[in-house]
Amino acid sequence: MDEDGDPRVFLSDGRAMETSELGALFGEAAAVTEPPESDDEDDADDDDDDDDDGGQTSGDPVGDPDVLSDLGTGATKLLALCAEEGQLPADIVSTLCENAGCLDALDALRLA
Fold this sequence. Notes:
By secondary structure, the chain is mainly alpha-helical. It has helices at residues 16-19, 21-29, 43-51, 75-83, 89-100, 103-111; strands spanning 10-11, 62-63. It contains six helices and two strands; from the N terminus they run βαααβααα. The protein has a two-stranded antiparallel sheet with strand order 1-2. The longest helix is centred in the last third of the chain and has 12 residues, at 89-100. The radius of gyration is 16 Å and the shape is globular.
């Protein structure tokens, strides 16, 4: 929450708003009314993404990338983690928890 009591939200991949009801709720809280639209000059890139039926392609983050700065992960580092190819969400969560000093608690939850 910010000083005004509004939620601070960050989605590593804005496409979650299209595929997940929870993602859509978080996108709404991030003041994103719909998934980011591409400009005409980005259409070629979008066509390439549509052809890739394999793993996840890169999606644009939405929201407040500075949301975890007080927990040890600044906006630049968070965006870099999200953009790093081959990163699984669990790997990113582990890195965020390590930076925040709560990796042991996360590991305990995973084992429970």
